[in-house]
Amino acid sequence: MKVSRPIILLFLSLVSYAADVERKDFLPLSLESDAFFEQFNETWASRWKPSHSKRDENFVYRGEWDVEEPTVNPGLKGDKGLVAKTEAAHHAISARLPTPFDNTNNTLVLQYEVKLQKGLECGGAYIKLLSQEGGVSDSVEFSNDTPYQVMFGPDKCGMSNKVHFILRRKNPKTGEYEEKHLKVPPMARIVKTSTLYTLIIKPNQDFEIRINGEVAKAGSLLDSRYFDLTPPKEIDDPNDEKPADWVDDELIPDPNAVKPEDWDEDAPYLIPDPNAVKPEDWDEDAEAYIPDPDAVKPEYWDEEEDGEWIAPKIPNPACEQHGCGPWSAPKIRNPDYKGKWTPELIENPDYKGPWSPRKIPNPEYYEDPTPSNLEPIGALGFELWTMTDSIMFDNIYLGHSIEEAEYIGNNTFLPKVEIEEQIAAANAPQAKYDAEEPEKQIEEQSLVSDLLDKSVDRVLKVYASGKAYWADLLDDPTKTLLNRPGEAFFFASVVVGTITTTFAISTTIVSIFATLFAPSTPQPVKRSEAKERIESVKEKATASDSKVNETEAVKRG
Ligand SMILES: *[C@@H]1O[C@H](CO)[C@@H](O)[C@H](O)[C@H]1NC(C)=O
Ligand SMILES: *[C@@H]1O[C@H](CO)[C@@H](O)[C@H](O)[C@H]1NC(C)=O
Ligand SMILES: *[C@@H]1O[C@H](CO)[C@@H](O)[C@H](O)[C@H]1NC(C)=O
To answer: Which numbered atom of ligand 3 lies nearest the CA of 410?
Structure first.
């Protein structure tokens, strides 16, 4: 790799810039209200309880949690956060509130930071406000089945990326809870610096989602553009049946139509061309095949035993100049052909239109004029499946004041993210440069084996996780798919990906063998040709790489 001198110098100056980013000390913030506010100080473990709940062998919350300083793009010195540590695992942790949180006729503000230190391939980073009734307790661990009131925050898998906002509302007619999803949720920020997510629910039924303090979505809970909170007022009468004499054929064959006299159903589709003429030199008497005049009776032929010897036949060479044998005109499409006669279709005078059952009032219909009034909340927590580990959460606020949440954002998130972004910017081009490359070969080799080790480990984890999901899916398909669609998507893409890769690899192997063993192409030429090609591709890649870096470095410098 060729790197010009000025670029190396520029790069070195960037590294020292990264080291120069001033990281202020973290100072704990205290609130005047008694709202829930968590900064993960040294007493965090007395409030937060990790769950190791399991439904069966296959569904275990085996994900580990820890409170630590960030390892990627650090912000304030000494600022710790809660980290989901295990890749491809279910994680659950919750904190009970000292007193149940009640937002009847009052504003609810939920705010927290998410830092995707390794990005987010497939996984959730949302928070749940758990119901006081039936929620977590000393004897009941947090799980997928724990009732909640609000679910809010990022969830991404493959192409699907959203900031969930889900309300769980009870239907008083059936007693069942139903999940009410925000119809078009905003997208989550997939960056390795902190992102601040805020949810506001006001007693006038307005809601607002802010990302990094900016409004990403706002409206009314009662507006059908955002939520369908209530069931339909009317439903099809399940007892109404289609009458036996209902006519639903819109068109029928005209009963008065008669087949025209001159309609010949038997006229053939093809006829001999009446205008064709036999070519003058066509010889009807000549044979198309004649005995081979050059054939000779073999010596071993014994007429007594083998019978009379007959010369084998060959195509008559005379027929190559002109046609031989009986002549017939070529066939053409019959202009008189009409095929089978069918009467024209006319509108059915008895047609009654498509049948639909009559509507009746929905017995499960109810009104929900104040969905902002949630049931009392007893705890909050994270209950996630994630493929990517090292997701960090911090500065969790649950209270009634928008101003308080903004105050927290101004004093914790903003100063932190400023440092994180400076460090991220300074570090961005670092990985690509290696001014001096001592023992490049060895380094690359260990990198490859390292990567291989890691991928084997990963494949095993994905396999175990996928097996567990499959077992759940067989057990209760609807519930599993509804509650954990991200995993279905993820494992489906893994399967498709594996099949594609396997196919690609076997095709490559086959083509390599084909090249090696192809008899007509001398090997050495092929090989050196291939090597040359690889070399030139490498050169090109390096050239364009350093160009990109150059412009990036110049921009930053
Ligand atoms: C730690 O955080 C909790 C909850 O915010 C708070 O009540 C407590 O005073 C803090 N402890 C220290 C030593 O700062
Ligand atoms: C909430 O407000 C409604 C309407 O103003 C009122 O009828 C109700 O009593 C209030 N509920 C509480 C718990 O204050
Ligand atoms: C937060 O910062 C913004 C911008 O500086 C300011 O307008 C706002 O008043 C601050 N809010 C609070 C509650 O400190």
So the answer is: 1
